[in-house]
Amino acid sequence: MAEAHQAVGFQFTVRPDGVDFKLSQEVIKNIYLSGVTAWKKKAIQFKNGVLAGVYPASPSSWLIVVIAMMSSLYIHIDLSMGMMDTIKENLPYRSTRAVLSAILFATGLWLFLIYLLRYTLKALLSYHGWIFESHGKMSTSTKVWLCLVKMFSGRRPLLYSFQASLPRLPVPSVDDTIHRYLESVRPLLDNEQYNKMELLASDFKENKAAQLQRCLILKSWWATNYVSDWWEEYIYLRGRSPIMVNSNFYIMDLLYVTPTHRQAARAGNVVHAMLQYRRKLERGELAPLRALGTVPMCSTQMERMFNTTRIPGIETDFVQHLTDRKHLVVFHKGRFFQVWLYTGGRHLLPSELETQFQRILNDTSEPQPGELKLAALTAGYRVPWAQARIKYFSQGINKVSLDAIESAAFFLTLDDEPQGYDPAKTNSLDSYAKSLLHGKCYDRWFDKSFTLISYPNGKMGVNVEHSWADAPIVGHMWEYILATDCFHLGYTEEGHCKGDVNKNLPHPTRLQWQIPNECQNVIETSYLSAKQIADDVDFHGYLFAEFGKGLIKKCRTSPDAFIQLALQLAQFRDQHVFCLTYESSMTRMFRDGRTETVRSCTSEAVAFVRAMEDAGQRHFNGENAQRLALFRKAAEKHQNMYRLAMTGSGIDRHLFCLYIVSKYLGVDSPFLTKVLSEPWKLSTSQTPQQQLNLVDINKFPKYVCGGGGFGPVADDGYGVSYIIVGENLITFHISSKFSSPDTDSYRFGQHIQKAMLDIQALFKPENDKTAQNAKYVHLENGKKHI
């Protein structure tokens, strides 16, 4: 351990004539440098905190205001309209009254101007008319609005500069929400079912909604966001089922490029890049994400990216976030190692990290009793894990070792089985995804904010705990890591990290455990329950390379709407019925915003799908114009729903919060109970790419990420994550359950492929349609892909 290494540098011997001290000059130097680095870090954080705190003004603007007020004393022009004289009369020192009154008034005026600028910017950011305008067309009012936003946004904002200027998430009216809800379920219900739902909604609106809405509006005034805290608590932290597969998600490495095939070297570069990112994050030096390059997004979720762990509880978990963690924990072949990330007040260099990881790979020691599958506790049900944590890990060396894991910057697994996309191997993407999603059920610490996974062939990946943040947040970090790894740090010709090798670093330390047989039984039970879940995941991933965003945009439609309608067509062909469909949208234009649901199965989408499946018309070119018109109508409806969700006028988060209020007040609502119990048989999400634009993928087309995915939400449904990669590639990650006789991920993937091609054919002449359909691989009906 680093503490022990430093202690060796300080020795003393008691002699009859006194005490003889021996100090190691090298260790004293390291201690000194560590202190200097710590104070430097605090100074930078303080400076950036001040800059963000007074934004969009600057500290230098205070001096300008003070000078202006001081100047007024000498030119005998009272710019304060008598206020400085009033302040002067109440000051004790006669000789300096005039100067002090000018400084105090200038400071007050400066603070007033800061708040005026902030609230002006907040008012400007509350305008969302721009998002409802047609793509490529911008009204004069929106152009004026953009100019004003740019003018009031200041220069060179830091990560958290806009936080105080972001508007609060508005509470929609009950009438609007219920109207949109009934509209969303109309294509899914027959007349009798829909009439019953209308009666439930009408009863709720007339008798109970007003009281619940008043409470929600009161919360929206008091809290920075009326949804996010309840969403984190009730959707994530209070869930008692396993978070592996059911909640956690994953992100893949580069698809076509592996910078080095040396496992320790790749891990060294990636970990070092993460430390660089963490330093920028802690100092607030990252640029805030902005839509249109102007409209800021909330950065709150990024605060808990590192040094964060989900702690299990009997009734509810909680998220523990620490600061300034200087170590990580590494898992390899059933052993846990602690690795220090600093030496002499600086980060370990990539070559030094490679040395440390190689030492772990070379270690041939055996796991201690109960250590091999210990992490399965985080993969199983939450209550047994919480009880075991209290009983077996609350004292002694078990507590010390568990604290080391839970307080680590993040968790690293050095896996022993190669993974990654290989076009020469069938199902390589499927195996890669399952490894990232659940692994062996005991080789990822699923409670950590994220587990970094390193494979023997140099591939990497991330498994992410979901409660603290959503996929775009981790995607932002991962883009920075991959670009830094490949284009800034690099490798030697032999595949090692660049830089000198420091062999004097203290070796990684094995964490020690004393796990009794009773606890080992709990671990095994958790492992078996987790393995049952993992074995049931039917996953299929594939790369759709026939066309991409470039061609879709030439068709003058939204790529997301195009894919969502293809998913509706594929769903109907696969299941022969329509279902409630979940698409995740973000609400980060608001303070502390997270997500909202877009209900993609609309009446317009259903009409389009039925037209595509009309057996009497499918092969007549004359009907393409009608289908195309229905497609455009459905796509426009979808885009409008997405825009409403982004601007705080969604359906599901409002109803969810009304339901929570009803439970607090003891109000029984059959309508809200019915709404919240509806199953999402098709759950979809788009993972954003190129948030940072650090790599020009037109110049480097091979340096693209495979995106990520998640487990199935319903027992008899599908989970679909899709990533629009550049102009010519779309990746799909499809999950379902083997135990369901109605689903097959491979079959659904083929339906998606066919649906994409069929829709694209609507925009082409009939003679091209045959060529496109020839690319479709015929399905064997009902054949399960295992």
UniProtKB/TrEMBL annotation:
Which residues belong to any copy of the Carnitine O-palmitoyltransferase N-terminal domain? 1-47
> Where does the source fall among the domains of life?
Eukaryota
Please provide the record's keywords in A-Z order.
Acyltransferase, Fatty acid metabolism, Lipid metabolism, Membrane, Mitochondrion, Mitochondrion outer membrane, Transferase, Transmembrane, Transmembrane helix, Transport
UniProt record, GO biological process:
carnitine metabolic process; fatty acid metabolic process; long-chain fatty acid transport
Q: Choose one Gene Ontology CC annotation of this protein and give it.
A: mitochondrial outer membrane
Query: Is-annotated flag, keyword Lipid metabolism?
Result: yes
Tell me the Pfam families matching this sequence. Answer: Carn_acyltransf, CPT_N
Q: How does it sit in the membrane?
A: Multi-pass membrane protein
Q: In which pathway does it act?
A: Lipid metabolism; fatty acid beta-oxidation
Indicate the residues that form the catalytic site: H466
Enzyme Commission numbers on file: 2.3.1.21
Residue span, Choline/carnitine acyltransferase domain: 169-754
Name its cellular compartments.
Mitochondrion outer membrane
Q: What molecular function terms (GO) are annotated for this protein?
A: carnitine O-palmitoyltransferase activity
According to the record, the segments passing through the membrane are 60-77, 98-117
Keyword presence, ATP-binding = no
Its EC top class is transferase
Reaction equations catalysed = (R)-carnitine + hexadecanoyl-CoA = O-hexadecanoyl-(R)-carnitine + CoA
Signal sequence extent: none
Described purpose of this protein according to its UniProt entry: Catalyzes the transfer of the acyl group of long-chain fatty acid-CoA conjugates onto carnitine, an essential step for the mitochondrial uptake of long-chain fatty acids and their subsequent beta-oxidation in the mitochondrion.
Which family does the record assign? Answer: Belongs to the carnitine/choline acetyltransferase family.
Q: What is this protein called?
A: Carnitine O-palmitoyltransferase 1, muscle isoform
Source organism of this protein record: Astatotilapia calliptera
**Recorded name of the encoding gene:** CPT1B
